[in-house]
Amino acid sequence: MKDRPSVHDFDWVLMALVAAICTIGVLEIYSSTHASAMAGMQWKQLIWIGIGIAGMFIISRIDYHTLLDQAPVLYIVGIAGLLVVLVLGYSRLGAKRWISIGGENLQVSELMKLIIIIVLARYFTEVRTDRLTFRDLAKVAALTLVPVALILKQPDLGTAMVLVPVAVVGAFLAGIEWKHLAIGAVVVALLVPVAWNMRRHLKPYQQQRIQTFLHPEEDQRGAGYQILQSEIAVGSGGFWGKGFGKGSQNQLGFVPVRYSDFILAALAEEQGFIGVCVVLLLYLGLILRLVDNAQKAKDKAGMYVVMGVTAILGFHVLVNASMVIGDMPVTGIPLPLMSYGGSATAFVFLALGLVMNVRMRRFVN
Amino acid sequence: MAPWGISDQKIPQGRLALFSYLSVVLVATLLVGFWKLQVVQSDHFADLAEKNRIRYIPIIAPRGAMLDREGRVLADSYPSFSILLLRDDPKQVEKNLPRIEEGLGISGDDLRQQLEEAKSEPKFQPVVIKPAASDADIAFVESHRADLPMLELMMVQRRRYPHGEMLANTIGYVGEVSPQDLENSPDKYRPGDIVGKAGLEKEYNDQLEGTDGMRRAVVNSVGKMVRTLDDVDAIPGKPIQLTIDYDLQSVAEADFANKEGALIAMDARTGAVLAMVSRPTYDPNDFAVRIPAKEWAELNTDPQTPLLNRAIQAQLAPGSVFKVVMATAMLESKAIPASYTVYCPGSAVFYGRVFHCDHAHGMVDLHKGIVASCDVYFYNVGKLLGIDRISHYATALGLGRRTGIDLPGEEPGLVPSEDWVERVYHHKWYPGSTISVSIGQGAVMATPVQLARMIAAVASGGTLIRPHLLKNANEPAPEVFPLSDDTVRQITDALWGVVNEPDGTTSETVKLQNIDFSGKTGTAQTESFELQNKLGKHLKENGWFIGLAPRRNPEIVVAALVQGAGWGSSVAPIVRDVVKAYYDKKEGHFQMPTPQTAGNASPSASPAVKPVKSSSLVASVGAQHQ
């Protein structure tokens, strides 16, 4: 038993997995962009990783209990931030997602992911029971759906969806009754056709994405084109891959945003099925290691925090990889730690900072 | 420590373990998905990736040149550049439109309209915004590669007709392959391919067009070429040599300046066409780039039908030229004695109607009937022969059916007969109609080429040559309708008289020294003969002259038609000039007509076409821009 948390208690196994994934990511960003106008992108990504690591250390120093204390404040700040984005944020690629703080563009919805982890961890801890009532579930749903709705308004279907697994995994661990889980599953199953009929109320870009997901061949140059090109990249990579910097789909720009959302397609083309196995197994290792941290958490609050992070990262990997092979529509969900992107990368490190935070305090009284 | 943070609750290890198992299952599922694409369907996707990466760019084969009988260029091809606008980035395009308009000198409205029209086409298909780029345009594109990347140059082979309007209706023109042709031979043509559309360009398209080559190139996702893999060279089209004599053609064209009509000059022994004129005409260079829709509509709806090749397509009353057929029928059928004479008082009455003659000829025999072109004489001959005999000989001499010249769209003309009138008009032949036909009026219609061939046949004992334009072509044996020497002698002597005797219709104005030049005039009403008679005056008349030399077994035969010329005698000088040029060349003292009147001056020639001097014998290929 120690009195103070120490950096020696950092999860170095986890960090090794993160380092491996980041390295592969940076290399693939280099391979995808070195011969284009975007050459040098890997350095920017490295800088973001550096900033993320610094943030991770900082956030690991603040006791997560203190953070959980501030949950209501954080929640209000987060909601307010999202409202500000809707009113004042500027558009990029047709969506209002960014606000400018001190010259840097910040994606508030990324911050909201961290906040929802903390808020729901606090809520589930406060329920103090092994059995969630229907009332509890309704509250969880309300807490989650307010930011979801605001992010959907931006519109950013991907990030909005990402918040849901935090609630679902949390509820599962908080002891949702199998009966309720079954009801939930049935409700979702019933909602799908309703949602399908409601699709006319969706934004045109969302309709388009659903349409092209279902019929990718009909829209060769739009979103369906993206899926098709991604599938071609993955498939043509074969078992062994075409070699580093040698993927024609990647190098000639057929793979859409090959350095970011579709980086796994670029990697699959150049490194083949073998490369994909390595990457996905690294992610599986990362997730299992995170669950391990949750299992060893000192208290339930810590576990919820860790599993919130796990839920989001796992969801990202699942949805992104499925999209790359055409099993899910294009939603703009990046592959954590590999896809190029400042806010997204910083978020992952901050989230990992929370995990470290919990881990460092498992022996502390 | 926060009051709610007490670790009084057990961590749900079971459910966490369940989460782990679920994670393993999901990752395994993902790997199965990747396995399906990367191992099971790997070949399929590798194929698609190759198709993505490699673009086949056609290398356009230059079209074969057309040369005259001495190898002078009448049509050739030259490499030229088209400027393309890539539309991958519409915002950039929109932003830079004013600069592009200014730099290339294109009207903004036209450009915008073109882009609007191209909107429905795939974005990666570029728009041709300037089909024939000038050197300045090319320099503009090259120097703005960096800041105007949406502009691209494409090399094409463009058709060039160095003499503009000269021989235009015979040469024809080229244009983009029609949707029908595309449907009929999809393996042969791609949209946008250039094919012969009319005239010789169409007739000999298979020889003239080469086989396009193919470049395999690696392209990126916006279709920009990254590097070339390999080339299959284009096979250029074969040149064709024509029977046309540029010198005779020039003489004929010069004489047709500001006239409407047609001329065909042939070697009377072989049918080789030496010159062919049709007026009004057009400049085929206008079609070689891209003819604006408005101009095309004008050409097509022009009442003067400039697209018609009158030498083979104008079906008109032959007028007195038909008297040669009448004389042949009279002598060969022996239905009327060769010594038959008629007194011509200036008109005659048949079937209760007055038929006029030019003037009172007095006593007329066959020789005088042809030389002075007495209508009354042939009215009587026609009445005695009857329409069926006339029809038989006219048809035998090649009228009323195509000559088989190697040009598309030849018209057959018309020889009326009792059968014909019953078939078409469902009534009996009016004997009065025979009287009109006897002097080449009424229903009878012939084309210039038919009349040239008919007279050449009569003068050479009945050999019907097949007119043709391709030199060294395998000609089928000519059709022979044997005529007696006596018939040939009598008629050709009369034809000689037309030109050389004092009472000939040309009044000795077109005599040629040392040349046995003969011929027959014709003046034909364009309105119906009945209407002319009713009004009692001549309206617009077509003048004909068919000349030949020497009078028997002629070397050259020339048919000329001038529409609205009045008398056939006014057409004779044109024919004389061509015949004289033929003999001048033969004897080695030919001189080109002065350039002021030369027919090759074409003010409407496209500025992109640099005129090539007639002395340049070889098809020239311009320097390629690199």
Structure characterization notes:
The complex is a heterodimer of chains A (365) and B (626). With 365 residues, chain A is mostly helical. Chain A has one domain (7-360). Chain A is built from 14 helices and 3 strands. A 3-stranded antiparallel beta sheet of chain A has the order 1-2-3. In chain A, helix 5 (108-127) crosses helix 13 (300-324) and helix 10 crosses helix 12 (263-295). The longest helix of chain A is centred in the last third of the chain and has 33 residues, at 263-295. The radius of gyration of chain A is 20 Å and the shape is globular. The termini of chain A are close together. Chain B has 626 residues and is α+β, with helices and mostly antiparallel strands. In chain B, the strands form 7 sheets. In chain B, strands 2, 3, 4, 5 and 10 form a 5-stranded mixed beta sheet that branches. In chain B, helix 14 crosses helix 16 (375-385), helix 14 packs across helix 17 (387-396) and helix 16 (375-385) packs across helix 19. The termini of chain B are far apart. Mean pLDDT of chain B is 84; it is low at 596-626.
Which helices and strands appear, and what pairs or packs with what?
The complex is a heterodimer of chains A (365) and B (626).
Chain A: H1 12-33, H2 41-61, H3 64-69, H4 71-88, E1 90-92, E2 95-101, E3 104-107, H5 108-127, H6 134-152, H7 157-173, H8 178-197, H9 204-214, H10 223-237, H11 248-251, H12 263-295, H13 300-324, H14 342-360
Antiparallel strand pairs in A: 1-2, 2-3
Chain B: H1 13-40, H2 42-53, E1 54-59, E2 66-67, E3 73-85, H3 90-104, H4 108-117, E4 127-130, H5 135-143, E5 151-160, H6 168-171, E6 174-176, H7 179-184, E7 194-196, H8 199-203, H9 205-208, E8 213-219, E9 225-232, E10 240-241, H10 246-255, E11 261-267, E12 273-279, H11 285-288, H12 293-301, H13 310-313, H14 323-333, E13 342-344, E14 347-350, E15 353-356, E16 362-364, H15 366-371, H16 375-385, H17 387-396, H18 418-425, H19 431-438, H20 448-459, E17 463-464, E18 479-480, H21 485-500, E19 518-525, H22 529-535, E20 541-549, E21 556-562, H23 572-587
Parallel strand pairs in B: 2-10
Antiparallel strand pairs in B: 1-8, 2-3, 3-4, 3-5, 6-7, 8-9, 11-12, 11-21, 13-16, 14-15, 17-18, 19-20, 20-21
